[in-house]
Amino acid sequence: MAGQEQPRQAPGFDQLDPFNLRKAQSCIHCGLCLEHCPTYRETGNEAASPRGRIYLMRAVAGGRMGMTQAFVDQMYLCLDCRACESACPSGVPYGQLVEAARGQIERNRRRPWWQSRLRQLVYAQLLPSPALLALAFWPARFYLALARRWPVERLLPSRLRALSELLPREIGAPFWPAHYQQVPAQGQARRRLAFFSGCVMSFALPDVHRVTLQVLARAGCAVETPPEQTCCGALAVHAGERGIARALARRNIAVFEKLGVDQVVVNSAGCGAMLKEYGELLARDHQYAERAHRFAHQVKDVSEVLFELPRPPMRPLPVKVAYDEPCHLQHGQRISAQPKQLLQEVPGLELVKLPGADRCCGSAGIYNLTQPAMSQRLLAQKVQAVQDSGAQVVATGNPGCILQIRRGLRQAGSPIPVVHPVELLDQAQRGT
Amino acid sequence: MDHTKLISDLIRVVGQGAVLYRPEELLVYEADGHTIDKAAPRAIVLPSSTEQVSQVLRYLHQTGIPFVPRGAGTGLSGGSLALENGVVVCTARMRRILEVDIPNLRAVVEPGVANIRLSQEVGHGYAYAPDPSSQAACSIGGNVAENSGGPHCLKHGFTTNHVLGVELVLPEGEVVMLGGKAEEYPGLDLRGFVIGSEGTLGVVTKVMVRLVRVPEAVKTLLAVFDTVDSATRTVSDIIAAGVIPSALEMMDHVVIQAVERSPVAAGYPLDAAAVLLIELDGPPEGFDWEMAQVREICQRHQAREVRVAKDDKERALLWRGRKHAIGAVGALATAFYTQDGVIPRKRLPELLALVADVAKRYQLTIGNVFHAGDGNLHPLIVYDANDGDAPRRVQQAGGEIMAACVAAGGSLSGEHGIGLEKREYMPLLFSGADLAAMAQARAAFNPDGRCNPGKVFPTSTGCGEVGAITKPGVLPAVA
Amino acid sequence: MAVATTSQLAQRLGAIVSARHTLADEAARPYAIDGLVPQAVAFPGSVGELCELLRLAQQDKLAVCPWGGGTEISFGNLPERLDLVIALPRLNQLLDHQPEDLIATAQAGMTLHTFQAHLGVHNQFLPLDPPCPERATLGGMAAASSSGLLRLRYGLPRDLIIRMVVAGAGGTLSASGAKVVKNVAGFDMAKLYVGSLGALGIITEMTFRVRPRPLARRSALARFSQLEAARSMALAVIHSELLPEALEILSPRTLGNEAWGVLALFGGGPEIVAAHAKRFIDRAGAAGAQAAEEVSAGELLLEQARRPDGGVAAVLAQASVPLTGVAPVLAVAEQLGAQQSCTIWSAAHFGSGAVLVAADGPEPALGQLLLALRQSAVGQGGSLVLRRAPEGVKRQVDVWGEVTGGLTVMRRLKENFDPQRILSPGRLAGGL
After folding, report:
1. Residue A286 class from Cβ within 10 Å (0-12 exposed, 13-18 middle, 19+ buried)?
2. Which end of chain C is more exposed for a tag (fewer CB within 10 A), N or C?
3. What is the nearest CA distance from B353 to chain C, expressed in angstroms?
4. Best of C51, C119, C145, C184 to mutate (most B CBs within 10 Å, chain B)
């Protein structure tokens, strides 16, 4: 989707949403990010590395060059996995920079009318609306039923086929927040939380949501799921549609503020990272800046919440698990120990070493659809590592990663299932 | 030569996608870890094999085009900048570990392998010893070019002590194997000469390294001081006492502050004037005596506290601060410049006093984080990139510090290399005859000087004369 | 040649170094190299005089060989020509010792023994231990790259020289390195001169990295009936936590015994040394040693490891191989000795992959033996050089063997540094 359109001719970034040059200048060009960047490792091209991309952003900001096609290509070849942030000694907020650069690109280039319309439709209307999503998933179910019987997948054009391959083979009934507005704690209520259910996950992985609520309830959490909530805006931000994302953020903040809970729990790493960055996203919105900051501080990944609470009894679950670190959990939120610790405490469960567990699987939002070639290369490495690890199950806490790795394993003919860590906790707690 | 033809010829050798030539891509390669000087190449080639490197160099030889080898581009002396509008031959795609031979304590790697990856993949209680602070990213090939050190080279040696063989493609395209898995081979030790030659003799395409056993035990101490002077005196006394720590690192107040305010906070006391990170390794039976010596010396110099890391986690934390200190200090301002002079260890107190004085006179912030046990200073000068006059002041200040190091009986560089950055200072350390001998030796490998031109040797001839170093970056035409 | 007669040459040399420090005719006979007697020998008393001698040599195209203690003068190809020997024993000053900085500088003609005595005053030492330290000079040791057992822990001359001054073919002095332990400024010229046998210039001065003397030293010897058992013991020690300063395998004849010996030298703090010696003995017991004990007369055994034949054999060959090649080369040496009816004394600096094989016997048989032994070393990925051999053997067997890499560059180096081929012509590998 990072199209082949002509860039706008005038060099430099616009001032509508000023690019933070000071933050870009905190990069000292030391190069410690290089080995952590999947696209640099794959290409060896420094323009496809964090410090290279920052160098290009600085060149544009400084008027040395315009937003040329090569610039656009590099900004979109980035997975926004933010592995570089964990490696950066200077604390450069790379994710923010690349997202801001994409915002600049999108504001300042002409896309064919149908593309602009499509982006508007997807990011501003489809994703935020459960009803539309449900509508969209309806043909998907039909298609899947078809695909289970006949090899129709092969007939699809390549982008659609990629999308199709990402779909789980079985989709449960959608998760409608309205049905789960109040889930009481089991036993003593220790915490009152709100659950962020997001957009696609309620349709693509609805059972993970249901299981999450149960696991939280067993841990003593009373959980509310407000039906008025909407998409977190992460996909829009990745695509440079910051305006759309801000509108979504404002709505979410308003919805969750009203509940007056201590924490907002989220089981999707990608959404969690976005929600935690609402403060940055709305920093220049006088009405919302402070509220956004407050909200962002309330957001917790489900593993963070569970980690702090006493564990319910568990039965042995003798299974070898490879834990794959979602980028937006590990790098975006600096959460790595908690989910692993929670899994390790399950009796009988063995965490096997997964080399490259800290590396992106190539999912990265909708990267697998926009940059299929690079995504495939990264996925192939991940699948190989999983198969070499001796694991019987892969656990990872982000819907995009679950779908991506499932697809990769399926293509490789591997029966290894990919689940959310809470699903394993749930199994152990239920003893099945 | 016609640019389009050059690009298409190179593509014919290495394939589409392995030649970078778009102006934006050239721009990215105009600097390495040293950002004061800039020069963009006319193209970047990313070969995947020795054969491709050889073909590329043969082609460049036939067409008379200069070139420069480049690894990860983390070097701090501008050594991988393409002067004279040359071609960058980058080893970033040559990243295979070809062989790990544990019985013989050897490994064979391609030059693009990141230093840290080698030890990680070898594992099983074995490691590759040299550990430059940029080890998370820097390439083994780059380490060979610079003869890289690192905190632990104080006891365990430099790249030259751990690389036993290199496969080198000479500037004319011939592939030669120098050294090998054994320690010695007949003939001149060209291997040893190539290590540290800053990429001026050819392109290294394979590296055979020594593996060592990971020390049986390690103790890491943090000693906290209220004056820089007492910290530096502690350093020279430890060495003089015959204790050889595996690492002996110092950080001063500016650095401590920067580290503690960064994402890599290590728990250094914020109000300390200096801390020493002292590491001992070896058989646990030896620690009592060494620890007693170190403690006694620290106390003699009024250390406020001597903290021993109680587990691997605390140890890693203390080191994390040190290994990322340059980045943390760099983040204090929009630009930074680091120096690398070496002095006899007993001269540390006076040299650090001089650095402080220089900082005051040039109105610059200078932090010191360095390999004190080796006497290898790293004054980090931070400045505002947007201040037009700053680079000049920074270089003058740097020049003064370098001259002082040489005057104290030391050297211009302990591990970063001369590169482009320090070339004009070479006459401070070497006579015309010294440099002539070096140039004669270089000519045996690189007769027409096309391999990494403009590096190491001064362009001015007068002794002690320091010419203007900064060359304006060649700005590629960008549409 | 400008100088018509030997006496004229002696006169001109006398003008530089005084007649007292010049030898000619019969008096020069002891300074023959491989049977080739020089016209004259000069003993410069200063670096200035040395340079002047070299200028004279260049003018008159005199072939020059440097001479230190003469202990390794047999190392090298038969000289192409030999007119003048420049002997350096008068350049024997200690120039600088910085005990607190662990570095010391001396002129090339100082004997190793004297240098050690100076360092010993401060309880320090240079960790190089080639044979005959009373006669071997620092310069000779560097030029011939001589080493001993301690190289396992401390390295070779190339690893310990941090600064070097050399007088080149025209009598020009040039320096490289610096008097600091860590330095990368300029090219590491010393690497070219170490082991060059004076073919590129004459070393006049060196600065070494020195070490504190170990607080304690102990040696232990384990005897095995079979080489295989000795090998596996030695390999296990190298891969263990034990840190010997030296680890040797001695052949039965070298040991003066029926058994193969594994000799370890431990140096360091008294507790470490005692503990490691004990662990070595325990390991040897477990490895099936006939006997394993600490040896009080360790120095004698160490000397045998440095000079297995005590200096009596006609030939001394040194193989340099990867660790796993050591035992095969030792075995082949024994086998060949029996086949060729030669007497073999062998010893290996095991951890360094250096195998010393001394042999006595009729010259043709020695020649056969050495060629086969070289084949074995090369087959193990290494090489074999003759450190000492009579002319007859040298005519049969190349001293160096094949130079596998970089001969073109070596030739160009020789041309650039010594275009007239007056410095040790022909002696170096490849006939340089």
Report:
1. exposed
2. N
3. 20
4. C184
Residue at A140: amino acid letter: A
Minimal C-alpha gap between A186 and chain B (Å): 37
Phi, psi (deg, nearest 5) at residue C166: -130, 140
Question: How far apart are the CA of C306 and the nearest CA of chain B, in angstroms?
Answer: 17
Q: Into which CATH architecture does domain B97-213 fall?
A: 2-Layer Sandwich (3.30)
Asked if B433 and C173 come within 8 Å (Cβ–Cβ), the reply is: yes
In C352-391, the residues whose Cβ lies within 8 Å of chain B are 352-354, 381-383, 385
Domain boundary among C59, C87, C115: C87
A55 closest CB neighbour out of B28, B137, B331: B28
Residue by residue, pLDDT tens for chain A (432 residues) are 333 333 444 468 998 888 999 899 989 999 999 999 999 999 999 999 999 999 999 999 999 999 999 999 999 999 999 999 999 988 899 999 999 999 999 988 888 888 888 888 888 888 888 888 888 877 777 777 777 777 777 777 776 676 777 767 677 889 999 999 999 999 889 999 999 999 989 999 999 999 999 999 999 999 999 999 999 999 999 989 999 999 999 999 999 999 999 899 999 999 999 999 999 999 999 999 999 999 999 999 999 999 999 999 999 999 999 999 999 999 999 999 999 999 999 999 999 999 999 999 999 888 988 899 999 999 999 999 999 999 999 999 999 999 999 999 999 999 999 999 999 999 999 975
Domain count, chain C: 4
- Cβ <8 Å between C184 and B176: no
Q: Parse chain B into domains and list their residue ranges.
A: 3-90, 97-213, 217-327, 423-474
Residue of chain C whose alpha carbon sits nearest to that of B418: C185
What distances in angstroms separate CA C347 from CA A296, C248, C251, C317, one per listed residue? 72, 7, 6, 11
Which residue among C381, C402, C413 places its CB closest to the CB of B441? C413
The SS3 assignment for B289 reads helix
Which subunits sit against B, judged by 3+ Cβ pairs under 8 A? Answer: A, C
State how far the Cα of C416 lies from the Cα of B444, in Å rounded to an integer.
Answer: 7
Question: Is there a contact between C318 and C387 (Cβ–Cβ < 8 Å)?
Answer: yes
CB contact under 8 A, B90 and A71: no
Interface probe for B, chosen from C182, C189, C279, C428 (most Cβ of B below 10 Å), is C182
Q: Which of B20, B74, B479 sits opposite A45 (nearest CB)?
A: B20
Measured CA distances, B84 to A222, B25, B29 (Å): 69, 18, 14
Q: Are A305 and A263 in contact (CB under 8 A)?
A: yes
- Residue C193 lies in domain: 94-212
For the record, the structure tokens of A428 come out as 């152990």
Helix, strand, coil percentages, rounded to 5, for chain C: 40, 25, 35
> Are the beta carbons of B104 and C402 separated by less than 8 Å?
no
Among C43, C60, C87, the domain-final residue is: C87
> Which residues 201-230 in chain C show a CB within 8 A of chain B?
211-212, 215
Provide the CATH topology of domain B3-90: 3.30.43
* Cα→Cα distances B352→A381, B142, B260, B274, B358, Å: 49, 29, 22, 12, 10
